[in-house]
Design brief:
Chain A contains 15 helices and 23 strands.
């Protein structure tokens, strides 16, 4: 009972304290629990079910584009991590090191993988011989560890779940195509499955992944205007291949280095999901990944025929939708609050009067709209409604992103926007990382998000230094 | 080309050198690659596809029996591992320890999970309050680490993939039912999906899991008569609950300790799959988990109409079966050897003469039987054939297990069988672990496998010491 009461307690308002609102949702929707291990989280059944739905959807997209899953060891010997100079510099400071195994001190320290480029390279060096062995299109789903000082569930944790794709190609052109193809897969997934719009483009050199020649990114905007790096895709050229001596005999019968990519997304996406769509009553989940799509709530369930009818409707719906019938002895009001907290897209209420009229009440989670609909053809009605909910959620998020995107022509406008208007800032840039440093310093943390594929011409000079501009860049604070 | 030649090289004969035959298959069927990390393996796409099929099948069975997936941290603080005395004694000697995180020495060592009882208990202590919160039926799919001195792919590795179920119940009775229910789920999975028969029953106290009151096991026999512990299910009573202070308010409004179980299976099952079914030409996979169920091989594919027809058959079959069309420029002979090595259950050959007659040739991997069948109704023909292959594989394995199961009435018969007849030994036992020790010593490694649920009466006295017998026990050497 104490448990139940806790569920319907109000959570912190989103506009009142965004950070606290986020934490409240994460806990009260029972997505995670904190563990005694610093920075590591317990992903609870409801949170994990969301992750499973995401993973299954992405995995299908990866397989449709020809990728295969593998599993690499979770440990990387220190000497292996050190083979690619830029890479080790990027990751060594945040590694967890195993130094003792089976009660003996190890002769070489093992890093718990923060990412697996080095392991894939070592394997590729052994199995790739000729151009006939290419491309290699591998992906793995696993957990990785990056020692973080300050942590927040899903957004920044010392251990997180992710997928990492690692591919090897005969030509630079093919590898570049793959890098962009996977960025597009991510973009489609965000739009079609998570109902999240985003800005996509290339990272500036300063923001590139350790060891990459090019890093592409998808940057959705959270409801409060803060950006979240939602997924990245990297083109490595042949730098790793050279460091790990991966060669193949080409069609010309000569030895060549193959060209490489990697791309990854993680449980951070659950954080994005919360911060883009949810509201003061809890989670709002897009139908495609909601663990429960329809919650059937009988009203006055003690009255004759109500439970029977509710059961019949449930049996009918569960063939097509992830459906839950709640016939527990909690009050309807408690149940409404419960499934609102959990972000169930559609609530179906069914009482004696509805049954008389052969109808039911559908309540949308995202808008609270109440619809009185016939029980005839209810599957089609709900199916259409779920599509509409998805589209409306996407469009509202897009509207929010547009509203919170501003243009700065000079450093004063930059400062003014950074101070007063949360969101993205579009501004011209000279290409010098010194300007990125300066902007970050004076604004208290605004960083370049990406150079979008379609740049607008907002002027001829860098908004920071006034020198000739090379690119239009999206800027913003980030999680 | 070098690659191709390697594929059709003969592997070591199964009867010649079983261990080398096993390693040859693992490598030549491209299931794993060795890594530079001691005892850790790279699971390659074909090996991982087998694991995915196993995992999806088991996961469905777990969900159908009401279980939910979660994810616990991969690290266990030393103090947490030490909370349950028997448990830490069992696992501490084989732990890998993280002592440095983010370039700082940790104040407390973290063990990379060898199993997660302690983490589940810590979480349960926080989220369970009343009998209304029970049962908790959680499972997780993850990798675990146990530092091994001598390793073999799938059978014994320092890191392996597994599932671990951890459940919490109001009553002892419910927890005992769960322990046996999950053993049955494993037994069904082995029979229905892996086509592997097994002996099931209870482990002797000596062979129990660290901290368990009862351990149940499924013990399939490999082709050479050696046993493999194929999965275990443990009843813990309330020992962990007491150690971790997990309590709930009961229906009587008083505080109680809940009763607990855990159960697990791992990538070892792939080792079992190989050693039960495969032969001198490579893998033989049961249809339910084969990554490719049907390989379509065009014969004389340069002749007009052959590739078109092969493609049409492929398009037709792939809707219902995991099908691969191999129209590469390799010879049919090479392709035959390739898909035999990979254990594809059915090969479909299609040449100009077959097309004329509206037929094709189906070749069973398990028996090499050739069937000339009409292309009309080919889906049904293949569907029936796959069922028959599964059943025949199961029955052959059962026959092998029966043939290699012997009865010993006294220590001399025990020694004779252990020396001359590989397989299981059924023998009466007094219940004293001293006799287990003695049998292991004198036979060079024969251990008790389990006390089966249906014990036969083979006599009144212990086959080792001659004292009154309490149980009939299955004995055998193990991987």
């Amino acid at each position: 009972m104490a448990q139940n009461k806790k569920m319907v307690e109000a959570i912190t308002g989103r506009d009142e304290d965004f950070a606290k609102w986020y934490t409240d949702i994460v806990k009260k929707a029972e997505l995670v629990d904190y563990s005694n291990v610093k920075g590591c989280m317990v992903i609870r059944p409801y949170g994990f079910a969301i992750w499973e739905n995401m993973r299954n959807d992405m995995d299908r997209r990866f397989k449709e584009t020809g990728h295969e899953n593998v599993y690499m060891p979770m440990f990387i010997p220190e000497s292996l991590l050190e083979k690619e100079k830029d890479h080790v510099e990027g990751f060594a400071p945040e590694c967890a090191w195993v130094t003792v195994g089976g009660s003996e001190k190890l002769t070489e320290r093992l890093c718990v993988r923060p990412t697996s480029e080095t392991l894939f390279c070592e394997h590729y060096a052994k199995i790739v011989n000729t151009y006939r062995d290419l491309p290699k299109l591998y992906n793995q789903w696993c957990s990785v560890v990056r020692w973080e000082k300050t942590t927040r569930p899903f957004l920044r944790t010392s251990e997180f779940l992710w997928q990492e794709g690692h591919t090897l190609h005969e030509t630079e052109e093919e590898a570049r195509e793959e890098t962009l193809r996977m960025l597009q897969v991510y973009t489609d997934f965000y739009k079609e499955t998570l109902a999240i719009p985003a800005v996509v483009g290339e990272k500036t050199p300063k923001e590139r992944f350790a060891g990459a020649l090019e890093t592409y990114t998808i940057e959705p905007m959270m409801h409060n205007g803060v950006a979240l790096q939602g997924g990245t895709s990297h083109y490595f050229g042949d730098g790793f291949a050279k460091a790990f001596d991966i060669t193949y005999t080409g069609r010309d019968n000569k030895l060549h280095y193959p060209h490489q990519t990697s791309w990854g997304t993680s449980t951070r996406m659950i954080g994005a999901l919360i911060m883009v769509h949810s509201d003061d009553d809890g989670l709002v989940l897009p139908p495609k990944i909601a663990p429960i799509q329809v919650a059937v709530i009988p009203i006055a369930q003690h009255k004759e025929g109500v439970l029977d009818k509710a059961n019949a409707v449930y049996e009918q719906l569960k063939k097509q939708f992830r459906t839950k019938l709640d016939d527990s002895d909690q009050s309807p009001g408690w149940k409404f609050a419960q499934y609102e907290m959990k972000g169930v897209p559609v609530r179906l209420e069914l009482g004696p009067k509805d049954i008389e009229k052969n109808q039911c009440v559908l309540v949308r989670r995202d808008t609270r709209e109440k619809l009185f609909v016939s029980l005839d053809n209810i599957e089609q009605t709900i199916s259409d409604l779920l599509v509409k909910i998805h589209d409306d959620m996407y469009n509202r998020a897009l509207e929010n992103m547009k509203e919170k995107t501003h243009v700065a022509h000079n450093i004063n406008e930059f400062l003014d926007i950074a101070k007063n208007k949360p969101g993205f800032i579009k501004a011209m840039w000279c290409g010098d990382s010194a300007c990125e440093d300066k902007i970050k310093d004076v604004t208290g943390g605004v960083k370049s998000r990406c150079i979008p594929f379609e740049e607008e011409n907002l002027g001829d000079t860098c908004a920071c230094c006034g020198r000739p501009a090379k690119h239009m860049v999206y800027w913003g604070k980030q999680y």
